[in-house]
Amino acid sequence: MLGLRKTTTAVTEDPSQPGVKTKGSFVPKRVDETIVYFSLLLFGISTGQIQPSDLIKTSGNTKQYGYYSQIFAKIHLLGVKWQYGLAKACELVAAEIKAEEFKLLLMKLAQVLRLGEDLSTFLSQELQAVMHGYITTYERAMRSLDMLLEMYSTMMSTSSFLVASMALLTMISGGGDSSQLVVIVTLTILMGLASFVFMAYYLFPKDRIMIKEGHSDMVKIKKMLMMALGTAASIGISLSFLNILPIPLVIAIAGVPLILPGLLARKLDAKIRKLDDSYPSFARHLGDVYSTVGSLGQSLKSVLRSDFGILNTHIESMTNRVMSRIKIEDAFDLFSKDTGSVLISAGNDVMSNALVKGANMLQVGSRLSEITTKFLEIRKKRLQSAKAFESTIIIMHVLTLAVFSLINRLLNFLAQYFALQQSVGSEGAAILSIAAGDTTLMSMILSLLIVALSGVNAMALKVSQGGLFHTIWFNMGVLLGIGGVVVYGVDIFLDSMIGDILDITESLEASAGLGDA
């Protein structure tokens, strides 16, 4: 995703798209959101009917576009300062580029510059092509993500039965060292689930929606998170040493503090998304009014007569800055920082550069509104899929831990039953040597599984949702609470049933002993 208002000369990488690193820039392997906004910037500047050299110089000086800005700066250096000519410079630079879509754009631009065709018409067509390529790539990635998450759900549904089978095998084989097989199988399942999640995390878009650097709400959430982690660890360790509650309940209680920073992050995420929803209509309206009025301050005053929801507060602040004679670039920059939205920051950068270069703001505002609306549409489709996946994960989380808890209690029951049989005494040789596995080991595995499975499932939900990363702590806290309560509930239910069975068995064995006497 595009991180605006951030200049860097070090090795950088776009975290939302895979690529390769080169000195001083990130080289994208496919169409990403940054090139869409960069193409929009080129189109917006070109509507001002400026010289090609000025267009390339301006786009090369906008460092927030990273790799793309550096390429255009290099073209300007070769074409103007070294006097190769802009068309020849485009061809020379394009020959060294590995990103096929951007390379093709530069080759076409070279031909347009050589023939002297209208740049705005050409860049308008290229913007449509780049946007279509981005939407196609994103939708294909989402289909792949859905398939991967379905495989993840299937693996979760089969994992509990696999462990149950291994537990039965350990009983038939007499327990002992065979119990280690259950540990190996459980760890293998967790590693398999984790590999699916991290594969999806690194390969698919993350939809970063917020500029985190220096934002007051993010600072508050980070402080709250540190306090929550400390509180959770303290509660867990204290209750474990005091041994006044079962371990599953201790885990559930320790997970509750994590919900608060996650809840704050979810509220901030929802706030940013509301701001984004209002931005397309604002961009279109501002471009329409400015093309008629010709003054940014008066245009903003006119725009404020309309209702843009929670975005109105930030528009008012920007209006006051503009009327106080603050530079256009600084006014838009502060507007972006106040909102904290990556999408608004990207759009504001395009509008500020277009305004400074005397662009046709009617066209710029209209195209910016269309592109932003497209981005919001595909994000909403992703959230709809994530909601369905969230319901599936919660159900599978409950069922998986319930089955594991059932296995653990059955092993405890068998251990008590075999101990009772040995105390009474038995005659005859058994065809199969049946014994319960290591119940202490199984209890430790169950406790570890509650925490590990909650963490993996929380990450899976975060990958499917995209957006602000710190919302993962809400998922983590809820899943820890649900998992601990479910395991404790299954234990209580089975204890009541198994306790009755053991009482009956013990009474029968005692009666048989009195009869023999």
Report on this model:
The relative contact order is 0.11. It contains 17 helices and two strands. With 517 residues, it is an all-alpha fold. Helix 1 packs antiparallel against helix 2. The longest helix has 64 residues.
Structural class: mainly alpha
Helical proportion, percent range = over 70%
Outline the low-pLDDT stretches.
1-26, 426-433, 507-517
User: How many strands in all?
Assistant: 2
Put simply, the count of helices is 17
Gyration radius, to the nearest Å?
Answer: 31 Å
The helix/strand series, from N terminus to C terminus, equals EEHHHHHHHHHHHHHHHHH
Beta-strand portion reads under 5%
Overall geometric form: elongated
Order of strands across the main sheet: 1-2
Straight-line N-to-C gap: 83 Å
Mean pLDDT: 82
Largest sheet: 2 strands, antiparallel
Q: How are the elements arranged and paired?
A:
Elements lengths: L18 E4 L2 E4 L4 H14 L5 H10 L5 H15 L4 H9 L5 H16 L3 H54 L6 H25 L12 H27 L4 H9 L3 H35 L2 H8 L7 H13 L4 H12 L2 H15 L4 H64 L14 H27 L6 H45 L1
Helix pairs in contact: 1-2, 1-6, 1-14, 2-3, 3-4, 4-5, 5-6, 6-7, 6-15, 7-16, 8-9, 8-10, 9-17, 10-11, 10-14, 10-15, 10-17, 11-12, 12-13, 13-14, 14-15, 15-16, 15-17, 16-17
Key phrases:
disordered C terminus; mainly alpha; 517 residues; 17 helices; two-stranded antiparallel sheet
Summary of the model, kept short:
This protein is mostly helical and 517 residues long. The chain is built from 17 helices and two strands.
